[in-house]
Structures are given as C-alpha cells and as structure tokens.
Amino acid sequence: MQPMPVFFTLIYLAMIKKGLFIGLTTLDIQYFVNENPRYNTKIKTDTPVCAAGGPAANAAIAFARLGGRPDFLTCVGQNHFRNFLVDDFANNEVTLIDLLQNEKYNPIISTVVTNVSNSHRTIFTHHPETLSLPHSVDIELDHYAFVFTDGFYPEVAVPVCNEARKKNITVIFDGGSWKPQLPEILPLVDVAICSDNYRPPGCNSLQSIFDFTLRQGVKHVAITRGEESIVFPGGEIEIEKVGAIDSLGAGDVLHGAFCWYMQQNIPFEKALKKASEVATFSTLYKGTRKWLDYFQASNP
User: Fold this and answer.
1) Do 231 and 203 contact (CB within 8 A), yes or no?
2) Which of 26, 83, 143, 176 could crosslink 53 through cysteines, CB 3.0-4.6 Å?
3) Distance in angstroms (rounded) separating the CA atoms of residues 224 and 276
4) Sign of the CA dihedral running 209, 165, 191, 107
5) What are the pLDDT digits (tens) for 239-277?
C-alpha cells in the first residue's frame, strides 16, 4: 500500500516549474588553515576539498537542495576535469546544459585558502577564456519559473533573459561585482541581489547604487554585506552571528535559496530573510557541500 506517496510526489514534481541558471563553472580547490599564510613558508593542511564552483553553480545546487529542479546552462567542455565536474552536478541533482560539450576548453580553476578561525577566505582565480558561443540556445523557456544569471557568458545570457522578459518570466541577477556587460543585462532583470563589491560607475553610496539599479528597470534590489546586514531600499535584514568557519559560497547559497522561496510566491523581503538564514547555516561547515548533509528544509 505504498504507491500513493510516490504517485503524489510525481504529481508535485510535475506541478513545480524548473529554474534555469546561467553562468560560470569553476573547479574549486579549497584549503583550510588556522591563520593567514606568511611569506616563504610551507603549510601542511588536511586534504583539500574539491568541488564544482561558481556563483550560478552553487546557487543551482542550493536551489536543488531545498526542493527545486534546476537546469544549469554553462561551459564545462572537454578537459581532464570534465568527468569530475559533470558527476558533481549530477550528484547534487543539477541538470547540466554544457555549451561546450563537444569542444576542448581549459577549465577555470580557483584555489581557495580559508581561515577557519574567522571564516575569511582568499581566492586565486582567473577570467574565462574568450569564447565563441552561440547567440541563440534551443531552450523552451515556458518550462521555467525564473531565469537566474550571474552575469557571465553574456552572449547567451542576454538573449535568454530578453526572451524571458518577453514571456513575463522573472529574471534574477547575482551582482557579485560590476562587469562591462551589465548595461545589456540589467534592463532585463526583475530582481538584483548584489554583493558589496557591486559598484556601478559613478556610484559611491548605497543610495546611489539603489537609484542607478532601479533606473535600469529592476523591480527589487538588495546588497549583501557578508556577515553584516543585508540592505535594500527602505529596509534592512540583520544576519545572525553563528561562529562561522567558512564563508565560501555563502552568497551563492543565499541566491539559490532566494530563488526557491520566491518560487513559493513568498514576498521579496521574507524570501530574502529566509534565504539569508540558509546561507548563514552553510557557513557552519567547511566547503560548499558539507552543509547540504545537515540542512533540514522547513516549510515556507
């Protein structure tokens, strides 16, 4: 007499539209130390943590952990790390759409040193190679509740977001920093959740950043500030102090969790608050994956 729960689960999954994430994939190699490295020293650490990374990648994985169905449009390509990256996404229930599936491509490698005494991290990485990407992708957007972009690969992100705007599909933007292509992307965005490093030209204050971003047509904008509060026009969300040991990817987790709560038709401020709680929880564990084993999703 067990078929009924499975039956209702299938109906539930069929009713939930998927989320389309567009952005960067990196190979993250993360080391943990108890103090910041000094010059000309060799530091012995435990075995590093290796995982697929990138803003949209981590957001998609967080979205999946909360119950979402993410597709991830990115560039992995053919290289020595492909199988590892593909398996990591599959193991975390993210459906990969690789724009470079049949092409050789050098992966973006990030080396991360995290100080577990204060959760601060230093990241060594590089920009993606200049790529020749298709300007149109055969994706049926009607299957998606929203489109999420971290601003990378604008050759693909801009036309997809433009099509989403025409279909009244919500576009969510992760503004980790200012990028030259953002004047093309921002007018297509409904929700922009940005870091403190997001500084549009000529903007020297929070209010000027809000004003600039809203003038582009964005409906909701917020600035995350690490362990400090999240601010948005007319409001502020305090971040609980929890003794974090690793902040790597916490902002990405917040974005993915926000997408999940927004998909449940939760108002912007409440969705942002609940997403911040998930992100804070993730900082209690090393790496960008361990928290997934311990997090218990609650009802919206």
Assistant:
1) no
2) 26
3) 9
4) negative
5) 998 888 888 999 999 999 999 999 999 999 999 999 999
